[in-house]
Amino acid sequence: MEEVKSRKKVDANADHLTADSKTSKLENGNVEGKKVHLAWNNTYLLLLFLLLPVIIRLCQDGCLPPDSPWSILSYEALWDWDALYLVLAHTVLQAVLYYLPAGKVLEGKIGHTGKRLRYNINALHAFITTTALLGLLYHNGLVRASFIFHKTGPIISATVVVSLILSYIWYLKSFWASEKELVDYGEKGNFLQDFFQGREIDPRIGKIDIKQFCMVRIGFIGWGLVNVSFLMTDIKRNGTPSLSLLLVVTFQLLYVLDTCIDEESILFTKEYTEDGIGFIMTLGEFMWIPFFSTLQAYYLLHRPFQLCYWAVPPILLLYLAGFAIYYLSGEQKDGYRLNPKDPAYSHLETIETGTGKNLLVSGWFGWLRHPNYLGDIMMHLAWSLPCGFSSWIPYCSFVSCLNILRKRAEETEKECAEKYGLAWKEYCRRVKYKLLPYVY
User: Fold this and answer.
1) What pLDDT does 435 receive?
2) Distance CA 266, CA 216 (A)
3) pTM score, two decimals?
4) Backbone angles phi, psi at 336, to 5 degrees
5) Mapping DSSP to helix (H, G, I), strand (E, B) and coil, where does residue 339 land?
6) Which residues contact 249 (CB under 8 A, 6 or more apart)?
7) H/E element holding 107?
8) Burial class (CB in 10 A: 0-12, 13-18, 19+), 120
9) 350 three-state secondary structure
10) DSSP summary character for residue 217
11) How crowded is residue 175: how many other Cβ atoms within 10 Å of its Cβ?
12) For a FRET experiment, which of 9, 35, 85, 176 has its CA 20 to 30 Å from that of 335?
């Protein structure tokens, strides 16, 4: 599930490829055509369904002080009807805010009807509106600042229920889609596979693109709101937030805001352009992103850590350097793909391939093969460090991110080697390192 969080500005094939034209991959539709996807084992799918909520709850219980009893098996930590109402209210609110007459409307790839799909790009406005509404409710005493903090267990259970219901809707809806809009797993009639992995590539309800809605409006905005709630809890409890918690929440909110501002970059990702949306992806956005990603803040609320002032500058520097690498390398890749003749990118050196596309071999991608991955990893480490080193729990998301991006780099390079042959070998000869200069 961490893959979902670390997908932004990640191309479906390679981080640094571009068509020699002024149109993007999104505008041209599916470039590579339909491919056969790997079908997961049914036993593995069932284990994911059973274990993902348990893993989250175990991690949260691991955030408790050592002498605290574990709450995972208590009924109060499993279900609360108010938690279900909260999840449903958030889902409905984000669906309504999708129609906000703000932001821009982006024309994307050609759908199965033969018309270009349109996307409302207004996640930033939705996030600001939702946060303002939360603050207004809190100011008027209609919600408690600590509600999410004290009800994380029941909220997680509620997200599982809502995800199951919505995923069944996605599954039923897919039977009205054309064959070319369905994911090809190489076999048909496997209910668990279709339900868990998803059948339809571009499902929509009204004007709402379901993937875009779940990925950004539920996942990232939910992540931001949980962090805001945790910050409000600390302020309510102590008057002012601790330095450690403030750093963690600030770093993660900047990451969320960047995603909301650059929402359209999600439309280029592999999950978006190739995969279906089923229970696994839906649960990932409703549960994993908002609660696995916020373990650091949850940990600090239970086990406050007094961060030394001298430790702040290096942590801040690590985060800012990671964000700069992550953002600037993504901008260079996307900018060059959109218009290689732009003066800002026309000076970059490239290697020609036999496919009509070029490989960037200067700039950020002449320094490292996957610089945006490195930036992402650095940011994950930076918002874990304020928790200290007395527990491994705050570093779970960092380790998960590192592992996911390492595997994705390997998969990407294997695909590029098959597709670009000698050109890719030459690129690897000139740019030797994948994720860490002079190390790996």
Assistant:
1) 86
2) 8
3) 0.87
4) -70, -35
5) coil
6) 227, 228, 230, 231, 241, 297
7) strand 104-110
8) buried
9) strand
10) I
11) 9
12) 35
- The token pair at 180 is 């070319």
What number is the average pLDDT over the span 22-32? 35
Q: Report how far residue 368's alpha carbon sits from residue 79's, in angstroms, rounded to the nearest whole number.
A: 47
C-alpha–C-alpha distance, residues 74 and 153, integer Å: 10
pLDDT at residue 276 in the model = 87
Residue 288's φ and ψ, nearest 5 degrees, are -65, -50
Q: Which amino acid is at 143?
A: V
Residue 212 near residue 205 (C-beta atoms within 8 A): no
Question: How many CA atoms lie within 13 Å of 420's alpha carbon, on the beta-carbon side?
Answer: 25
What's the rounded Cα separation, in Å, for the pair 99 and 122?
Answer: 9
Per-residue model confidence as pLDDT tens digits over 337-368:
778 888 888 788 888 887 777 888 888 998 99
Residue 323 in tokens: 């964000």
Q: How confident is the model at residue 22 (pLDDT cuts 50, 70, 90)?
A: very low
Q: What is the rounded distance in angstroms from the CA atom of residue 287 to the CA atom of residue 300?
A: 20
Do 370 and 435 form a contact (C-beta atoms < 8 A)?
Answer: yes
Are 3 and 408 in contact, with CB atoms under 8 Å apart? yes
Q: Which residue is it, tokens 């219980």?
A: 61
Band of the pLDDT at 294, cuts 50, 70, 90?
very high
Instruction: In whole angstroms, give the CA distance from residue 101 to residue 59.
Output: 40
Residues 176 and 204: their CA atoms lie apart, in Å, by 11
Q: Cα(first)–Cα(last) distance of the chain, in Å?
A: 24
Distance CA 15, CA 27 (A): 18
C-alpha span between 247 and 388 (Å, rounded): 13
